[in-house]
Design brief:
single chain; about 100 residues; alpha+beta; rbstp2171; 3 helices; globular
Length: about 100
């Protein structure tokens, strides 16, 4: 078994998301990051990447990143909701066990 190939297959997939004419990549958090996603801003910081897979946002002014606290709350909410939609599970596929 090729463990590196399996690891790559099981990693969170990037999904393109367009906002104000720009395309960013969003993804579900991985297991080690789920506890850090305790707020909208932290979730956005962890679950958004650029076309190279690099983080777009930070919680402070860092060269090469956008301070997530400096963007309009409406945009924060839109991005956060898009990430949350990736977490939705199709309830019709669940099997109830009794």
């Amino acid at each position: 078994m090729n463990l590196q190939e399996l690891k790559a297959k099981l990693a969170p997939k990037l999904h393109k998301y367009e906002i104000e004419g720009f395309t960013i990549n969003i993804h579900r958090p991985c297991g080690r990051d789920i506890e850090k996603c305790d707020s909208a801003t932290n979730t956005i910081i962890i679950c958004t990447k650029d076309e190279n897979g690099d983080p777009i946002f930070a919680n402070e002014d860092i060269d090469g990143r956008i301070n997530v606290n400096s963007i309009d709350f409406t945009y924060q909410t839109q991005i956060y909701k898009a990430i949350l939609e990736l977490l939705n599970i199709d309830k019709s596929d669940e099997i109830e066990k009794k």
